[in-house]
Automatic annotation (TrEMBL):
It is an enzyme of class 2 (transferase). It catalyses: D-glucosamine 6-phosphate + acetyl-CoA = N-acetyl-D-glucosamine 6-phosphate + CoA + H(+). It comes from Penicillium atrosanguineum. The lineage of its organism: Eukaryota, Fungi, Dikarya, Ascomycota, Pezizomycotina. Pfam families: Acetyltransf_1 (PF00583). CDD domains: NAT_SF. GO terms for biological process: UDP-N-acetylglucosamine biosynthetic process. This is Glucosamine 6-phosphate N-acetyltransferase. Keywords: Acyltransferase, Transferase.
């Protein structure tokens, strides 16, 4: 019974580039494998996004959280997932104008932000507040780990041969929310930035939302 399940949360630091879609032969870290189980069921099976695009370049450099529910003595299943993508993020123009050609794949000009994405909960576990719990867990982790977030941004700068010095993360958090769940993010403290407009991702309307958290140094 869902109501009688015990819930646990696991975190996976950035797993690196050797990731693949779930199958019996891959070598994904266990937490990432659990995350993909939820993501594939929600985004691919339910919402009909492309399976080939479900793993992207942000997965390798992101922190991932999975909520699991007990299903019996010594057994559990993953039921919810979220990831936190450290700075930098791609320029917003690439979303609203996909044909735009930019020299740099990342936005170094604006204040750095982390992005919460791939938030998903299995259908039978919705209505229990797990989406908000995932957001809260990720934000609470972020406010105490700014140094790790800044180091991750510095690594991207080094790999991309960017000659500037990345600005420090000051607590700005971004989500690209599906328009139909905009209210869920508002309930978690995010506010829609109308200047970002609305855009289509594989047939689904999205909006940009921000909030700022107080970083512990």
């Amino acid at each position: 019974m869902v109501s009688n399940s015990t819930l646990t949360t696991a975190i996976l630091p950035p797993p690196g580039p050797e990731l693949s879609l779930p199958d019996q032969a891959n070598s994904n870290p266990a937490v990432f494998q659990d995350a993909m189980t939820v993501r594939m069921r929600v985004f691919v099976d339910e919402q009909h996004f492309s399976a080939d695009a479900e793993i992207d370049e942000d997965d390798a450099r992101s922190w991932h959280w999975v909520i699991s529910a007990t299903t019996g003595p010594g057994t559990s299943i993953p039921v919810g997932v979220i990831r936190l993508v450290p700075p930098p993020q791609p320029p917003h123009e690439l979303l609203t104008h996909p044909d735009t050609t930019l020299e740099c794949p990342y936005d170094w000009a604006h204040e750095p932000c982390v992005k919460l994405s791939r938030v998903a909960v299995l259908p039978e576990y919705r209505g229990l507040g797990l989406g908000r719990k995932l957001i809260q867990v990720a934000l609470e982790w972020a406010v105490h780990h700014a140094a790790e977030i800044n180091e991750a941004a510095a690594q991207v700068a080094a790999r991309s041969h960017w000659t500037g010095r990345p600005a420090q993360w000051q607590g700005l958090v971004l989500v690209h929310a599906q328009a139909e769940v905009e209210r869920v993010y508002k309930g978690s403290g995010f506010r829609t930035d109308e200047t970002l407009g609305r855009w289509d991702e594989e047939g689904v309307e999205h909006v940009g939302m921000f909030q700022r958290v107080e970083v512990t140094r």
